[in-house]
Amino acid sequence: MPGPDLSLFERYRPIIDDWSAFSAALARPLPSVLWCNTLRLSSEHLAQLLRRDGFDPQPIPWYPKAFKLPPGVRAGKTLPFLTGCFHLQEEVSQLPVVLLDPQPGDRLLDLCAAPGNKTLQAAVHMHNRGTVIANDKSKHRLGIMRRNIERLGVTNIAILQADASNLPKRLGRFDRVLADVPCSCQGTSRKNPEVLRLGFRPGARQRGQTSILRKAVQRCRVGGRVAYSTCTYAPEENEAVVDQILSEADGALRLLPARLPGLVGRPGLSSWQGQDFDSSLQQCLRVYPHHQDTGGFFVALLHKAAELPKVGGR
Amino acid sequence: MSLGQDIAWSLLSPDEEATTSVLDWVQEVDVSDELSHIEERFGIAANSFDDCVVFRPNSKWLALVNRDLQLPQRPAVMGLGMPFLYPDMRFPRFTTAAAIRFGHLASRHIIDLEDVDTVRRFVDLQVIPLDPQDHPLVSGPGHLLVRHRGMILGLGNCRRDTPQWTLLAMLPKTWREML
Q1: Which of 108-147 (A) contact B at CB < 8 A?
Q2: Which among A46, A53, A83 is the top mutation candidate for probing chain B, defined by the most B β-carbons within 10 Å of its own β-carbon?
Q3: Could you tell me if residue A314 is inside a domain?
Q4: Which of A59, A89, A119 is the last residue of a domain?
């Protein structure tokens, strides 16, 4: 059987470390991955329950609260799922919250929250303490999050419905901010093959993504952290956006190494198609599907070391 | 800068650190009677919920949210917490979400369904015959917390209007459809 048409991704051939392994991974179905609702039970207990139901859960090396199941497994139709013992979420999508590492009592803002997988992961990571503000423009997609809030039993989330790039100062400041921005979703082609047939205009989303990241760093407290993430390979939506915000911040922001023990990935790019980026962009993380049988992902972890400079004379 | 100038400046420049509390957004509802009933029925201490605010988001149920949330001044909060109690009935009862979340705190009126087929019939809203001898934590008819392999599945209603006791699930359609 022929593999997927990867002509859309040809432009990334120079930056992908093993093109044939990358191509082969995209032709395989994506495994299911779940994380344990530790408010309800331990990950060891969850693994026991799953084994009793005939599954073979394999712990994720870089996140022991999460387990991988073979492709095609319908874990969302089981009693442990119904009773909120776990939540299904693609492996790489769990990265930003693990890197942000929000603590119980923190105030966390998820700017583009719907359908809420990362929001819920953060709320549980914080032991259902502190404050999680989940914002999204889409009322329909926020509805999906409400159902998962009920199933998982978390009570530290408040929902807002607003344009992420236009949130007011009266939102307050946050210890952690997550900007998982709308993107061209190229990294999700194993789950959503239709992205391979969609047209792609490099940089078409860059302005909106930059506005959201700008809002994220504005709303972060000095000393706090911001995670910027996408599920695309496009440097125009990844390093170029972070580079722009670093430049505007004039030293007030510093990239932290987005690395986790047991996680395979590649550093962020220092240049792309003739554009040079700040050398610290190599602290960012690129994950390709062949690294650990996942989708593709990008994440940057920023530390806000000082107040941002005033812009435009304001 | 004079005091007047301070006030004027504060009006023009919102305090970016200021937050609001849950009670700025919702009106707390006194549920002491309902929680007394829950305590009497299931042995779940009423003070288990002291860290939370109970409020009425709609006409159907009461919701529960952590008391110590630090909410924004603006924009408006659109959603808070999880469904908690159906209060306006003869016997107030937990929502399914609350039964699953807090059921582990109960010490009585819990029933264990070990057999997977019985669980399936429970979820399918079939009437399940019960032998009281098999369920020492159940002393009489009414609401029961139903458990399987240590997981609370939700609430059921135990009836004794025949010589045999029966159990019928009180699971909403949206939950049953997940399976």
Answers
A1: 128-129, 131, 133, 142, 146-147
A2: A83
A3: no
A4: A89
| Angle formed at CA B14 by CA B12 and CA B17, multiple of 5 degrees | 160
Asked whether the beta carbons of residue B175 and residue A82 sit closer than 8 angstroms, the reply is yes
- DSSP-assigned states of every residue in A212-259: HHHHHHHHEEEEEEEEEEES---GGGTHHHHHHHHHHHTTSEEEEP--
- For B152, which of A76, A83, A159 is closest by C-beta distance? A83
Residue A144, beta-bridge partner list = none
Per-residue pLDDT tens over the stretch A236-254: 999 999 999 999 999 999 9
Q: Considering only alpha carbons, which residue of chain B is nearest residue A218?
A: B16
DSSP 3-state of A312:
coil
Q: How distant is the Cα of A204 from the closest Cα of chain B, in angstroms? A: 28
Q: Which token pair is A252?
A: 């007030």
Distance between CA atoms of A95 and A262, rounded to whole angstroms?
12
Q: pTM of whole model > 0.90?
A: yes
Question: In the predicted model, is pLDDT for residue A1 greater than 70?
Answer: no
Instruction: Write down all domains in chain B, each with its CATH number in brackets.
Output: 1-93 (no CATH), 108-179 (2.30.130)
**Cβ-nearest to B69 among A151, A156, A162:** A156
Among all residues of chain A, which has the CA nearest to that of B82? A150
CB count within 10 Å of CB B60 equals: 11
Mention every residue, 6+ apart, whose C-beta is less than 8 A from residue A74.
none
A59 and A79 co-located in one domain: yes
Residues A70-97, buried b or exposed e (16+ Cβ, 10 A)? eeebebeebbbbbbbbbbebbbbbbbbb
Tell me if residue A231 is catalytic. Answer: yes
In this prediction, residue A312 carries a pLDDT of: 53
Q: Is A83 on the interface with B (CB under 8 A)?
A: yes
**Which of residues A72 and B147 earns the better pLDDT score?**
B147
Tell me the CATH number at A295: 3.40.50.150
The mean of the pLDDT values for chain A is 95
Half-sphere exposure of A222 (CA within 13 A, CB side): 10
Burial class (CB in 10 A: 0-12, 13-18, 19+), A32: buried
A312 domain residue, yes or no = no
Predicted complex ipTM exceeds 0.90: yes
d(CA B169, CA B149): 17
H/E segment holding residue A48? helix A43-52
Measured CA to CA, the distance from residue B99 to residue A154 in angstroms comes to 13
Both A84 and A160 in one domain: the answer is no
